[in-house]
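yo, Cadherin-4 is done. seq:
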Amino acid sequence: MNGNQVENPIDLYIYVIDMNDNRPEFRNQVYNGSVDEGSKPGTYVMHVSAFDADDNTTANGMVRYRILSQTPHSPIPNMFTINSETGDIVTVAAGLDCE
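structure:
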């Protein structure tokens, strides 16, 4: 270790930490949801699902969801929200109008 000889065996413990080497992947390439015009806040729209090949007992294998952007940005910029753990998408505000 420091140049001195070791006379007795030494136990050396090595812990291997999972590396985040796999990106999460959605189970489907496209998801289509629908919601009736004028639906109330909290109306269920759809469910998305992804998986991660990393060890699911570590943070690297846990999948969390969030909406990055919404287009169009009107009538309000955040008409929907997603449950970060389940992938369920619901309406946040009233005002969905097709016209």
